[in-house]
Amino acid sequence: MRVFQKWAADLIFGESFPIHSPVSASFAYSAPMHLALAYIGARPSPRDALDTPTKTYLERCAPWAQCASEAFRTEDALFDWLLRKQGRTKAVLVLFDSRGKQMTSETFAAWLGARRDDGTQHIVFAVGPADGWSEESKAKAQLLLSLGPMTMAHSLARLVAAEQLYRAFTILSGHPYHGGH
Q: What are phi and psi of 38, to 5 degrees?
């Protein structure tokens, strides 16, 4: 198993790093979760400077989860897509909302780890429309999560969310990326 972990680390990070957490041992063989970072709005333009780093963070999550980015024109389109994504377990929907629950990186990692350990197959993290989520959409979510009380552009919210997903997985696996600050 350590050979696989070293190979995965070298592949993703281009360098060796110590993997010594007891969590990483059980995590290495679990079936990968599927994570989607969704948003309501237009697809990113080629001039969106934050799209590339967002994709980079999602790609760095590959040793722990299959990640994708999805764009939807409306909330209804997102929910129609969600209905088609049902697997053996119901997809968990997390909506980013400034009035949602605020978590530290460690708390978020623990939340994500608990979903993983419960056998959750699919989690969708979604950035809402410009005028905010409808009350109907909020009622369908398993978690309303705040990235902070400030309003931010979709591309920036997606980048912050992607980085926090990567950070959560590194916390869970004992990787030194997260320095605890």
A: -105, 160
CATH architecture of 32-173: 3-Layer(aba) Sandwich (3.40)
The structure's pTM equals 0.79
> What whole-number distance in Å separates Cα of residue 99 and Cα of residue 16?
40
Domain ranges of the chain: 32-173
**What tokens were used for 97?**
């909302």
β partners of residue 143: 94
Model pLDDT for residues 115-135, shown as the tens digit of each residue: 999 989 999 999 999 889 999
- Amino acid in the structure at residue 48: D
Tokens of 140: 């369908």
Three-state secondary structure along the chain?
Answer: CHHHHHHHHHHHHCCCCCCCCHHHHHHCCCCCEEEEEEEECCCCCCCCCCHHHHHHHHHHCCCCEEEEEEEECCHHHHHHHHHHCCCCCCCEEEEEEEEEECCCHHHHHHHHHHHHHCCCCEEEEEECCCCCCCHHHHHHCCEEECCCCCCCCHHHHHHHHHHHHHHHHHHHHCCCCCCCC
Q: Rounded distance, CA 125 to CA 38, Å?
A: 6
Mean pLDDT, rounded, for 50-74: 94
